[in-house]
C-alpha cells in the first residue's frame, strides 16, 4: 500500500510540476548549443548511458512564431501537428494562442486536452475516417476540409453542420520536393461542379484552402495559387456561399540560412493577399506551418558505437555514365590503445600498388540512431543532413584538422540504414559524438523501434530571455497528458 501511495503521489506531482522543472533555463538570449550538448553528454556518460538524445529548444519555437507574426501579420498560424507532435511543442504553441492543423482523432484529442478552444482547430484532412468525423462533431471541431463528393456525402450523413473548406490543387507551373496534387485537392476547373453539389446538399462551405507542397522551389507558387484561390472563391460566392476563410496551407521553410527564402515568401504572400483578398473584404487568412516553426528547434546528438575501415575501389564510368563503387575489407594489424578505442590505423601498410589501383581508405562510422529512427527525414525528404563533430572542448581550429572519406551508418541491420553516404570526417573513435542541427520536422514523429533500437531521450531547454517573453507572469502549471 505504501508503494502504491508513493507511486500515485509521484504521478500527481509529475502532472502539476512547473515548466521550470521540465525545461532547463539558461542565461542569455540564445542557447549555447555545443556547451549544452556537452553538458548532456557528460550526464549520460557519468551514468554509463550513451543514448541518443535531442535538445528541444522551446525558446526557438517562440522566436520563429514571433518572426512569423512580424512578417505575416494578416496570417493566423495553425500549427501542423503532424510535423512534430511532442507534448511540450503542442503545449508551448497552445499557450502562445495559435491554432492547430489536425489530421486525425488522436491529434484532435491531444490538442483539446490542452484546453484549446475547438474553434482554434482545423481538421485539415480531405479523406477522413467516419468515426473521426463523428468524434470531431461531438467535440464541436467543425472546421474541416474536403476535395471530393464522396467526402461531402460522409460529412452530410455524420456532421451536416460542419463548416467546410474546399481544398484546391496548387498551381501546376511550380515544383516542390513533395507535391500533393496527385493525392489531394480539387482542380480549379472542377471546383464549380463540386461547390454546386455542396450547395444542393445544403452544406456550409465557408472558404478555400491549398498547399503548395513541401519545400517548394520558389516563392511565386504562393502568388499563382492565391490567384487560383480567388477565382474559386468568387465561384463559391456566386453560388450563394458566405466565403470568409482562406487557408494558404504550408510549405514554409524551417531553416534560417536559406538565403532569406521565408522573407521572400512572406513578401509574395502579403502582396498577393493585398491584391486578391484586401483587408476591406474581411476574409480571415490562416496557414498551416509545420517545418517553419519546429525545424530549427531540435538538435540530435548521436554516439559512435562502431567503426570499420575499408578500401574504396573506384571504377570507370560505364556506357550509361554510372560510376561503380565497391568497398572491400581492409586487412590490418590494429593495436589497442590501453583503455581507449584504437584508431585502427597504426599498423596499416599502404603500398604503391594501392595508389596505382586508385584505391583509398573509407572510414565507416556506426551511430545509435538512423533512418528508421529520428533520422527518418534522410529518406522522406531525400536530403543530405548536416553533421558536426562534438569536440570535448571548444576547438577554434577544428575545421582545419585532416579529414577522411567517411560514411555514417545507422544502428539497424538494414543496409538501407545509411545516414550520410559520402562525407569527410576527422579520424574519430568509438564513443565520440556527432550532432545534427535542424532536426525538428518529420523526425521524432516518424521514429520507429525497428530492430528494438531505442528512440532518443528528449531534453527541453530554453534561454531565460525567451522564457520571460513567453511567460512574463511566471511559469504556468504544466499538464502533459499521455496521448
From TrEMBL:
The keyword Signal does not apply. Gene3D superfamilies: Alanine racemase, Lyase, Ornithine Decarboxylase, Chain A, domain 1. It comes from the Eukaryota. Residues 59-293 form the Orn/DAP/Arg decarboxylase 2 N-terminal domain. Its EC number is 4.1.1.17. Pfam families: Orn_Arg_deC_N, Orn_DAP_Arg_deC. It catalyses: L-ornithine + H(+) = putrescine + CO2. The keyword Lyase applies. It is an enzyme of class 4 (lyase). Pathway: Amine and polyamine biosynthesis; putrescine biosynthesis via L-ornithine pathway; putrescine from L-ornithine: step 1/1. GO terms for biological process: putrescine biosynthetic process from arginine, via ornithine. Keywords: Lyase, Polyamine biosynthesis, Pyridoxal phosphate. Its cofactor is pyridoxal 5'-phosphate. The active site is at 413 (proton donor). One of its GO terms (molecular function) is ornithine decarboxylase activity. The modification N6-(pyridoxal phosphate)lysine is found at residue 82. Residues 296-440 form the Orn/DAP/Arg decarboxylase 2 C-terminal domain. One of its GO terms (cellular component) is cytoplasm. Belongs to the Orn/Lys/Arg decarboxylase class-II family. Catalyzes the first and rate-limiting step of polyamine biosynthesis that converts ornithine into putrescine, which is the precursor for the polyamines, spermidine and spermine. Polyamines are essential for cell proliferation and are implicated in cellular processes, ranging from DNA replication to apoptosis. Homodimer. Only the dimer is catalytically active, as the active sites are constructed of residues from both monomers. This is ornithine decarboxylase.
